[in-house]
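Reviewers asked in the last cycle whether our approach scales beyond single polypeptides. To address this, we selected a multi-component target totalling 465 residues and predicted its structure end to end. The input consisted of the following lines:
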Amino acid sequence: MADTENLRDSLLFKRKNGYETVSGAEVAEIGEYCEGYKLYLDRGKTEREAAAAAAVMAQAKGFVPFKRGMALKAGDRVFALNHNRAFVAAVIGEESMDNGALIAASHIDSPRLDLKPYPLYEEADMAYFKTHYYGGIRKYQWVTIPLEIHGVVIKKDGETVEVNFGGRDDEPVLVINDLLPHLGRDQGAKPLATAFTGESLNVLVGGMPYNDDGSDKVKLAVMSLLNEKYDICEEDFLSAELSLVPAGKARDVGFDASFIGAYGQDDRVCAYTTLTALLEMTETPKRTCVCILADKEEIGSEGIAGMQSEWYDTFIADLCEATGASLRACYESSACLSADVGAAFDPNFAEVYEKKNSAVVNGGAILMKYTGSGGKGGSNDANPEYIAAIRKSFDENGVLWQMGELGKVDQGGGGTVAKYMAQRNIDTVDIGVPVLSMHAPFEVTAKLDVYMMYKAAKAFFALEK
Ligand code: MN
Ligand code: MN
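The resulting structure, written as structure tokens, was:
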């Protein structure tokens, strides 16, 4: 009997709940760490805000803005903003960059509703904004919830007007209305995916008419309020980037406060954890460490600030040049954590998960060998040699981690920036925090997993060749 038990222990893998593996002191540390994370979520509800908040944090830790031509030596700490919407920071290592860099790449854009170029109109004595959703949203989740509006208006003369409205207790919020159940018979009979259309996601923004004769009096009144507050006219929407995001702050969830509920945790949870792991580095690392907070992941990593952009190659090439290394040699020996959230097993929807290979909350950071859909389509599919090296490093550094797939093989799927890093000839694996209600206005993570992602990033930045 005892022999069988030994055999079981030595041969079979046993899943543990994270709280069985951490000390009381670590539980306190987890809670404290997550307070900082919640503040970061509140400060960055768009990629621009999240990038700016990262820059403030970096400067507070002695990082300086990188300029091409700057001489760099081991221990130097630099950062750069990509068109004010993505962020990169690096700590120069002792070894030549020809020995590779350790790159953690996450994203700071999240699904939301963007304003159309001609957003403002009036109907039935109410003023509305037309929206065009960004990323994969479930439309029914965005009606009848309070919304804030964030973004920038760039006026013709180049002046930037920052908009951040609806977040303060004394400010009104905006909202998209839904049908009353009494008249919802036809809508209720429609499939979930078609019951709400993109064109029906119109935001209520006002109802008080301008005191005058003529048409569109409510629209005029709203525009005149916006003019007073932001000094803009309707035409200025043409060069604006304004987004509707869920109102409210990040909150603890559960009687035990062991979860965090907030908008935009995909993927600001990996942004915050990898960033703090880099910023808090006190000793000069052996290899150069880089933290990328990219934009546009939710729409395919496109555009100048998406992970496919050469902006990132230019930045790392500049670092190589400043330290006398070559980009090709650097990439060839580099390693990357594609840091992005994964799906947590949800017992309410057990039918879409394959339980044996699903990540669970409080199971720690999730390593994902592959993502994609329809037979790993569009996936990076990490090399097992690389996974073995990561596995060793995590185990040696007390990182609680698990392997996970998104869901059942034929149920759907998703992608991350991993494949774009691998295309650069960089060994890459996906890692993230398990999330419940991913892409919803209020996503849920477990504090222990957030903290373990931070520990995973710290271990990664010490990875030896
Ligand atoms: Mn993501
Ligand atoms: Mn996503």
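The two ends are 43 Å apart (CA to CA). We regard this as preliminary and will revisit it once experimental data from Aim 1 are available.
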